[in-house]
Amino acid sequence: MKISERTGVSAELGTALVKQQEKLFELWHRVRDGTLSRGDFGELVQEIRSSINATLLEESRIPDYSTGKNTQAQKQFALVGNYALFESAIWLFVTCEGVEPTNNAAERAIRPAVIWRRTSFGSQTAAGSAFVARMLTVVTTLKSQKRNVLEFMTQAVVAARGCKTAPSLLPEDSTCSDDSELLKAA
């Protein structure tokens, strides 16, 4: 965490945040390997979340952050502000099964698109770019839901030719216990 790389009070607060992050991921790994229930995880995370919130609040009160004297300080002040805006979304993985605390799945999901762009030199028109973006979204979404891409595309073409409603990319069942929180965060 960049805050821990600063000097003085910021470094101390950053180090405290890193320790909380380590505790959080230790618990998360236990949930993934089945040695900690999600319910117990949720209870234990509350202490970590409170500590992180308190540390970030303290970080935002450090002099020079609001004065604009230091570009790095301004970035960290913005980080604290952004955290406050998206806090409920950041912690959604605690209550919503299937949501990960990292973006590793998203990084893996876009990798084929990045490789395609590098090997094909992209598309040459706006319409081509829009088509590729939509197709990559459809394929990635269907693969993440373990649905058959060819079957879905066939249904979509048949529906379009028959002026019928296209099949949905949304999963049939949601594993998130509180979709309202997700909508609020978006």
TrEMBL record:
Pfam families: DDE_Tnp_IS66. InterPro entries: Transposase_IS66_central. Residues 49-128 form the Transposase IS66 central domain. This is Transposase. It comes from Plectonema radiosum NIES-515.
